[in-house]
Amino acid sequence: MCGVFGFTGHPEAKQILPTILASLQHRGHDATGVAGLIGEGPDCIDTVKEIGRASRVIDPDKLKKFIGNRFIAHTRYSTRNSSKSPREIHPHWAQSMQGRMVIVTNGDLINVDELAQYLAERKVKVYAKNDAEILASLINVQIRLAGKNMIEAIAEVMTLVKGGYAAMVMTEDDPNIYAFRDPQGIRPLHFAEFKLNGHVCRAISSETCSFDLIQRFDLVRYPESTGDYFHREVGPGEILCFNDVGPVTNTFFADREADKIGCVFESIYFSRPDSLQRGESFQKIRERMGAELYKEFKVEADIVTAVPKGGIPSAIGYSKASGMPYSIAILEEPSTGGLRSFTTNAVDRIALAKMKYSILRDVVKDKRVVVVDDSIVRGTTAKLLVRSLYESGAKEVHLRIPCPPYNHSCHYGIETKDPSTLISFGKTNEQICQVLGADSLAYLSIEGLYRALGADRSLFCEECLSGRSPFKENIHR
Q: Which cofactor does it need (predicted)?
């Protein structure tokens, strides 16, 4: 669930880019990278990329070498390959017929070995076997050996690859940014256009929160501007080509699933509450999930509280539906920097869970407490929180989770390939509750989830919840 972003045409692109990447940091904090031009006549692409968070990696001094305003960027959450390997950091390099090519991707391909063999048969060597390298190599093969243009090459590659992905490509001898999304629409991608004092800025992003940030920046920097704004989702199987002067062109992969919304876990956990899905904020969606949860699993208690930050919207919905007061009883430790324990490795996850939250003792003392979290994946944080609440004087602790149990592997961008690491795998609700040590535990039903989403179940990938995969064949990595 990496964050991908690209834009062109903004007059202060280098000034705002670090903040934009910070706004997508929740999607991945293993590494951060940016690609842009450092010379013209001929154009030359270079990168700034390192292991670490955007605030450390992408500082203004490192961006001084770039000229112009065309960039693609990435915040990395590692799945298949090592989080500590510099060679895995995006943007990924490739040599192409149009000079250097850089690519960023979000998601996972499920037929990497098959694709590597396809490339080997065409005398193309791959090194890291990450999705970005595979996609770039496949695109190059289509351009070099088949004589296709970039859009034709991407469309042909989409017939070969299987999985969930959203990607962006730029090259030295082409002024355009190319963006494309998997035909099932598993991984999200959004496009926006801003008009600002005669400038046209076009942007592509995993989430709409980065577009909001650009608008706020422009409002402060250019308070008298009356620029227009347009936003839409990139469709499943859609290929976009754009720069900051000409028209935006697009085409669709022939076998696209036109109405697909994508990964259901975007609604539950991944996306920021201020980002949009089909024109509605995830905040509103998650409040409805909390309300549905109360309808299904009522409990008598004194207060409703949330595990920050993900549980807050659903806790508000649960509180409104139940009439029980919402209270802040769990605080996120500022020194952890908002890291998501879900996206860390096993050793770091335990260490982070121990120090990430503090309890307001005088709020929970002698109280029956309903604790709402967005999900429970491995249970590391939940178990420690329950114990901390009791140690802080809580009389009862009732866990309420506004999504069904996460008990299946995901193969499209989440590092949960081994289901035995999931706390709900092979366990009953009562057994899970006993492991966590709570008085009660309840998950929102799959029917309640889709009532809250207000959309048909067939539009989503829900492999992590039900095991239902967009690809029917067995998945081997």
A: [4Fe-4S] cluster
User: Can you name the CATH fold of 3-260?
Assistant: Glutamine Phosphoribosylpyrophosphate, subunit 1, domain 1 (3.60.20)
* 281-466: CATH architecture: 3-Layer(aba) Sandwich (3.40)
pTM attached to this predicted model: 0.93
Q: Per-residue pLDDT for 41 more than 90?
A: no
- 461 is an annotated ligand-binding site residue: yes
- Of the residues 2, 201, 209, 433, only one is catalytic, namely 2
What single letter denotes the amino acid at residue 248?
V
For the chain, the structural domain boundaries read 3-260, 281-466
* 326 DSSP assignment: B
Residue 2 annotated to the active site: yes
Query: Could you tell me which of 225, 212, 420, 400 has the C-alpha nearest to residue 321?
Result: 400
CA distance 139 to 119: 11
Q: How confident is the model at residue 341 (pLDDT cuts 50, 70, 90)?
A: low
**Is residue 263 annotated as involved in ligand binding?**
yes
More confident of the two residues 305 and 83? 305
